[in-house]
Amino acid sequence: MSVGGKVLETLVLRDRVWVNTFDGDSECAIYVELTPESRTITAGDSLWWQAAKAFWTPRSIGGAMPFTDRSLERIGFSGISRNQALQRLQDQEAVEQLITRAEDPDD
Fold first, then answer.
1. Cα separation of 34 and 16, whole Å?
2. Could you give the domains of the chain?
3. For the whole model, what pTM was predicted?
4. Residue 79 pLDDT > 70, yes or no?
C-alpha cells in the first residue's frame, strides 16, 4: 500500500473528495475534506498523506514553479476503491431524494 504519488483521478462527492494516486508500483486512493481548494485537485498533481493529513502539490503549468505542499484533512483510511466512492455518491443522492420527498407535501 502506498502513501501517495501522482494523482490519476478525482471524484467530488457531496461531503468529500476521492483522490486516486499512483506511486510507480500501485494505485491507492483516499478521501480528503471538501474545500474550494480540494475541488481543484487534478490528474498530474501530487498528493501524499501521513496520519490525518494529506499534502497536495499542484503540478507545474507552463514552466511556472509549483506551489509547495498544501495541507488538507484526510478522512478515514487509504485503499478506497472507485466503486466504493461511486456507491457513496449514489447513497448520498438517494438520501437527498428521500429528504426532498419528505419535505414536499404534494407528493
1. 4
2. 4-103 (2.40.50)
3. 0.82
4. yes
